[in-house]
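Working notes for the structural subgroup meeting. M.R. asked for a predicted model of this chain before we commit to crystallization trials. I am recording the input and output together here so anyone reviewing the notebook later can reproduce the run.

Input as submitted:
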Amino acid sequence: MQSVLMAFAALALVVSTPATPASARTVDFRPGAAGIGDPAYPLDGNGGYDVLHYHLDVRYQPATDWLDGKATITATATQHLSRFNLDFIGLTVEEVTVNGQPARVRRDGDELVVTPARGLLKGLPFVVVARYHGIPETFRVPEIPLESRFIHTDDGALVAGEPESAATWYPVNDHPQDKATYSVNVTVPDGLTALSNGIPLGSTSSAGWTTWRWAATSPMASYLSTLAIGRWRIDQHRHDGRPTVIAVDETLPPTLADDAVERTDEITDFLESLFGPYPFEANGAIVDNHDPLLFALETQTRPVYPASFFDDGPNPLDDNLVAHELAHQWFGDSVSVRYWKDLWLNEGFAAYAEWLWSEHNGFMSVREWFNMLYDTELGGGLWTPPPYDPTGGTDPFRISVYSRGPMTLHALRLTVGDDAFWTIMRRWVVEHRYGNAETEDFVALAERVSGRQLDGLFAAWLTGSVKPPNPDPLPPGARKAAIPQPRNLHR
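Returned structure, recorded in token form:
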């Protein structure tokens, strides 16, 4: 909660700040960049400022898909700004103010270009208030069919999508490099429940509408923010002093997903024993019954799961799915990529945690998972293209990050030994907690801890075009399993 209080303190400072003094009028104010510089997604995010806190007030009517919103954004200028951009898709902007003064606004594709009445001085906080309305846009791939970003469901709505989703329901600096805290008030018709990230702060009702309040008090990348409106079967309790909120679509039978997501606390405890303390103020799950939701996503403190990924009755693969998304709370959410080319640092680490849980759960051992993937055809999607493109490429979302990513970690473990490997993993989450990192950082840490030169190992497993030698083959006659289909491609 401290970070939220700091944001409100900054807000109070801005409100009381006088007009730009005469001595500052000679400053060279310049526009902030229209993108944060990600090679794969050049226009994602924006330059010139750092967001501290988003306070979102939205009202949503599922019967018409209509959303009214007000976003209060507290930020700090990182350069002398004449204007700045916000990522914002589709919705109509009514007005924008900066430090209480009307600002000029124009659209440039999915960018909102904001020119404040006065230049913004480097190092000082400022507050943007934007009012907007409309029907949020859904991203669709009809031939699959798949839906993501802002999804209109039978009884409400769901927000989930990677690398982008936030900009479909509020103006945002939409890249993992700019993390912020959040407070979210969602008003929906009586009878519906609105879920978001972090700590539940209760609800109030008036004139046929109910407002649900949430607070994410740890820094969060924008694509990890979620909104889930509908009718849910909710289990809310405390575990290790923090709230766990598990919401399952009430149309689903209790035998489908409940048994897996109800292991959230147990699986979290196991992952803590490997990677260190759980990094956030709350935990939980959201399971929605919407056929075009064809992926799970590690939305911070409250992962989203599609009902179609679960089998009726207990199934260890269902538990593996929960372990994967919970592992992302460490790898992807707390420690986030600096650029999307490093996605294997999210998915490879979460997949390896999934293997570790599988072994702990008495299903398949890490060694069996590794060999099952190693024995697949080199020309198939599990091997090619390689999971890491140092240039950034055009599409980091490839199946091989889910296969060669965890295989890379297992090869590292066998090379440096368990003591060094677990030291590397735990230091990684401590050194980059609530921050961003890239592959070169992980290689440097592994070499520093192990005392070994590891460039060749990482090149072979992450970028090589041939199979490296198998460092951990199964003995003759050992069982081999069918390859489960990847279920977590987030678009």
